[in-house]
Design brief:
With 430 residues, this protein is α/β, with parallel strands linked by helices. It has 3 domains: 61 residues, Transferase, Pyrimidine Nucleoside Phosphorylase, Chain C (Transferase, Pyrimidine Nucleoside Phosphorylase, Chain A, domain 3, Up-down Bundle), CATH 1.20.970.10; 243 residues, Nucleoside phosphorylase/phosphoribosyltransferase catalytic domain (Pyrimidine Nucleoside Phosphorylase, Chain A, domain 2, 3-Layer(aba) Sandwich); 89 residues, Aldehyde Oxidoreductase, domain 3 (Alpha-Beta Complex). Helix content is 46%, strand content 15%. It has 17 helices and 12 strands. The strands form 4 sheets. It has a 4-stranded mixed sheet with strand order 1-4-5-12, sandwiched between helices. Strands 6-10-8 form a 3-stranded antiparallel sheet. It is globular, with a radius of gyration of 21 Å. The chain starts with a helix and ends with a strand. Bound molecules: uracil. Uracil binds next to helix 9.
């Protein structure tokens, strides 16, 4: 087999066979497929699509491109994964909350992808937090704390690691097939009993329409259940940022506000909804009440602190998080250009503002600036007067802040009061 054959089949609109896709995944993992070939492959799949058999073959081959974990723990091993959004820091609230509810959550997460933020980049804003740990340490933290959020080790789903980095910088993220294979290769390699997927829909998501999101949710749920992992999906709103902050340290600050009982809102509500669905899958009743109690009573914050410390972060982070998080040197208010209501967000444009500030990557080798981003983003429907701040920009340099102010003003529509959006649009069961 030859990478040119696989890419030529895609170019001509001929569905690559499962054997071809399995060969390609192996080549990604062992380095025999080059970055140029991987980029062409990603674009080919985006443009031409795979059939159901091809999607399943690519997913399983990417899972089997590395090590597949097995657990021997005294409670269900579960996880949640999001298809990606802006201000989406649910994982950081949910993992420690789940750990308080009688399940284990070994969470293998990703970095920023396209305009969306990545859980690993967010956690690395915490000084010392190490996302790349070996398997023995990962297992120890999961067993002792109940949750651990880490990157896939070099030998887990290595095919995804390479393709993910290529897709991030080649405009090839928005593919039902590639998103399915990417998410599920990691999640199936983690040896989970159950999984809940947060499939985002809206301007800040990869899937902009409900039909696209539904098709992705069905592909994910079907492929995962066929591979033996009990999986459900919630299709959730991404027409506005989930949290009022976008950017790595700024999102950690928002998470800590929720875990310490200082804030509620959509981030809290969605964490509970996803967690309750997952707990129900493994037969644990009253999931919503249990999760609320874990968050409101401080137990989830305590678990988060233990996880941070066990993975190299500071002792006492939870009590004093603001002291540990980096701050950008330039902080500027973004004035509303008119009177009216916050009527709409271009979520992708907002995400790209953060990438442009240095909070994400333009090329694979970029180093992320943890301090930059947006905070105090007003929610949809808020009434504003001209000049009132719509948000704050946190930048490394004055000229970057100037550009971000203009871009955010262009990404937020001021107009008539919009209809309130439902946070959870649909549920897709097995
Ligand atoms: N999350 C992933 O891990 N992969 C994708 O392709 C999209 C979201």
């Amino acid at each position: 087999m030859d990478a040119r054959q696989v890419n030529a089949a895609l170019r001509k609109g001929e569905a690559p066979t499962p054997e071809m896709l399995a060969w390609f995944a192996q080549g990604l993992a062992d380095g025999s497929v080059s970055a140029a070939q991987a980029g062409a492959f990603a674009m080919g799949v985006c443009l031409r699509g795979l059939d159901e058999a091809g999607r399943a073959a690519l997913t399983l081959a990417m899972r089997d491109s590395g090590r597949v974990l097995k657990w021997d723990l005294d409670a269900p091993v579960v996880d949640k994964h999001s298809t990606g959004g802006v201000g989406d820091c649910v994982s950081l609230v949910l993992a420690p909350a789940l750990a308080c509810c009688g399940v284990y959550n070994p969470m293998i997460s990703g970095r920023g992808l396209g305009h969306t933020g990545g859980t690993l980049d967010k956690l690395e804003a915490i000084p010392g937090y190490t996302t790349g740990v070996d398997e023995a340490r990962f297992r120890r933290v999961v067993a002792e704390v109940g949750c651990a959020i880490v990157s896939a080790s070099a030998d887990m789903a290595p095919a995804d690691k390479r393709l993910y980095a290529v897709r991030d910088v080649t405009g090839t993220v928005e593919s039902l097939d590639l998103i399915t294979a990417s998410i599920l290769s990691k999640k199936l390699a983690a040896g989970l009993e159950a999984l809940v997927l947060d499939v985002k829909v809206g301007t800040g998501a990869f899937m902009k329409s409900l039909d696209e999101a539904r098709a992705l949710a069905q592909a994910l749920v079907g492929t995962a259940n066929a591979a033996g992992c009990k999986t459900t999906a919630l299709i959730t709103d991404m027409d506005q940022p989930l949290a009022p902050a976008l950017g790595n340290a700024l999102e950690i600050d928002t998470v800590m506000a929720v875990l310490s009982g200082q804030a509620k809102g959509p981030l809290y509500d969605l964490s509970v909804a996803l967690g309750a669905d997952l707990l129900e899958t493994v037969g644990i009743a009253d999931g919503a009440a249990r999760l609320e109690q874990a968050i409101d009573g401080g137990a989830a914050a305590e678990r988060f602190g233990r996880m941070v410390y066990a993975l190299g972060g500071p002792l006492g982070f939870v009590e004093n998080w603001q002291r540990f998080l980096p701050e950008a040197p330039v902080i500027r208010e973004i004035p509303a250009p008119d009177d009216g209501h916050v009527a709409g967000f271009d979520g992708e444009a907002l995400g790209l503002v953060v990438v442009g500030l240095g909070g994400g990557r333009q090329v694979e080798t970029d180093v992320v600036d943890p301090a930059v981003g947006l905070s105090d983003v007003l929610p949809l429907g808020t009434q504003v007067a001209k000049g009132q701040p719509l948000a704050r920009v946190h930048a490394a340099r004055e000229e970057q802040a100037d550009a971000a102010v203009r871009a955010v003003q262009a990404a937020i529509t001021i107009g008539a009061k919009p209809k309130a959006a439902k946070l959870v649009r649909e549920r897709i069961g097995a």
